[in-house]
Amino acid sequence: MELYSYKQDKFFIVKVSGRMDAITAPEFEKSCLGWIEQGDSALVVDLEGLEYMSSAGLRSILIVGKKLKSVGGSLSFSSLTPNVAHVFSISSFGSMFPVYDSLEKALGNS
Amino acid sequence: MKNRGLAFKLILFTLSGTMAVFLSAFAYFYVSSKDSMTKCVEENARNLTHSTVHQIEKVLEGVQKVPLNYASLLSARNFEAGDIAGLVERMVSTNLEIYGAAIAFEPDALAAGAYYFAPYCYRKDDGHLMNVMLGDESYHYFTMDWYQIPRELNRAAWTEPYYDEGGGNMIMATFSVPFYKGKDAEKRFQGVVTADIALHGLQQIVSAIRLYRSGYAFLISRNGVFITHPDSRLVMTNSIFSIAEVKNSSLLRRIGKDMINGGEGLAALESGLLLPDKCRLYYAPLSSIGWSLGVVIPEHELLEGVHRLGRMVILIGLAGVFLMTIIVMLIARRITRPLKDLSAATVEIARGDLDAKLPDIQRGDEIGALARSFEEMRLALKDYIKHLTETTSAKERIESELKIARNIQMSFLPRAFPPLTGKNPMEISARLEPAREIGGDLYDYSLIDDDHLFFAVGDVSDKGIPAALFMAVTKTLLKGIAETGLDPARILNRCNLELCGENDSMMFVTVFCGVLDLRTGRLKYSNAGHEPPVIVRRDAQPEFLPVPEGFLLGVEEESSYQTMEIELEPGDKLIVYTDGVTEAVNAAGEFYSHANLMATVRSCWSLSVEGIATEILGSVKLFSLGIPQADDITVLALSFAGAEV
Question: Which CATH class is domain B209-302?
Answer without folding.
Answer: alpha beta
